[in-house]
Amino acid sequence: MLYKELTNKQIAEVLDESPPKVHFHVRELLDAGIIELTKEVVNKSIVEKYYTAAARSFRLSPALKLQKRMNIPFMNLRCMRHTGI
Which residues form a coiled coil (predicted)? Predict the structure, then answer.
């Protein structure tokens, strides 16, 4: 995905996962800015969305280790940061 544009269905095939399961994670990665929507292609009545990595490399926050140890869902951790907890 770093250099190639892929649809949700193509990502699911590569990962051998169901498209609905992958779609959830694609949305989370898109919201976090890790991937980006690069184009939309209309194929009959279906809109195919193509995604690619937003950067060549990523640094993960040390807060992710805290999240794993404390078993805090990612969304809750993000809310805690915004509220100053």
Answer: none
